[in-house]
Amino acid sequence: DETIAIKALQSGAQDYLVKGQIDGRLLVRATRYAIERTRRERADALRASQSEQMWKSLYKILGPGSSVVLYRAGTEAGLATFDFVHEHWNPKDEHEFLQALREHLTDAGLCVPWEFRIERKPFRATVQVEHSFEPSLHGGPADLPVCHFLRGLICGVAIRLSGETDLICDETACESRRDAACVFSVHRMFA
User: Fold this and answer.
1) What is the pLDDT of residues 144-190, one digit of tens each?
2) In the beta sheet, which residues pair with residue 128?
3) DSSP single-letter state for residue 110
4) Smallest Cα–Cα separation from 118: which of 99, 101, 102, 94?
5) Reported pTM
6) Residue 79: is it exposed, middle or buried by C-beta count within 10 angstroms (0-12/13-18/19+)?
């Protein structure tokens, strides 16, 4: 029954076979796809776990200096991310670029961007994200914002977007402080 199959897919089934319409070739293909899907899911889970362990180790090794190092690394990553998004998505305008950036940051597991507000004269940007990867690495609530890498990344993207090099990014709200979202404010260093 097609209705049952659709409900099964909506509930998380990956595929379905129709009784009476199965031949050997179809069964082998469905089995091969299921095995490959499982391998890919396990590899993705392993990569995510390794990445989390790497970030936790990095925070531990860097100690109190981690904010400066991660902000600078994030800025470099933001410059590269701007170029990557332009190269792979080929957006026609700023709106399409921000949509592609939103998709990229979400797919990369860095955060889920909700809002980008940009003013041009003077350049200012406000970015609101949820599910930043950094608060979970700190193991509990923090007194200060902790998204140093993401703060740098947003600054790097803003530098490329604006063409201005004297920008800085502040985190004005952070999920690690139990705020609803992380909010970043990009502005000129010497305004």
Assistant:
1) 899 999 999 999 999 999 999 999 999 999 999 999 999 999 999 98
2) 115, 183
3) S
4) 94
5) 0.74
6) middle
Q: Closest Cα to residue 159, out of 72, 93, 96?
A: 72
The pLDDT value given to residue 191: 67
Q: Cβ neighbours of residue 102 under 8 Å, at least 6 residues apart?
A: 113, 116
Handedness of CA 173, 52, 71, 63 (dihedral sign): positive
Grouping H, G, I as helix, E, B as strand and the rest as coil, residue 154 is: helix
What lies within 8 Å, CB to CB, of 116 at 6+ separation is 98, 101, 102, 125, 126, 127
Unique residue bearing structure tokens 């609803």? 180
Can you tell me the distance from the alpha carbon of 44 to that of 32, in angstroms, rounded to the nearest whole number? 18
Q: Which residues of 59-76 are buried (b: 16+ CB within 10 A; e: fewer)?
A: beeeeeebbeebbebbbe
Residues, the chain, total?
A: 191
Look up residue 27 and give its amino acid: L
* Residue-level pLDDT at 148: 94
CA 79 to each of CA 3, 37, 66, 128, 151: distance values in angstroms, whole numbers, following the listed order: 48, 34, 20, 19, 13
Collect the ranges in the chain with pLDDT lower than 70.
1, 46, 48-50, 191
- Helix, strand, or coil (residue 151): helix
Spell out the alpha helix ranges (H) of the chain.
Answer: 2-10, 24-62, 66-89, 94-107, 148-162
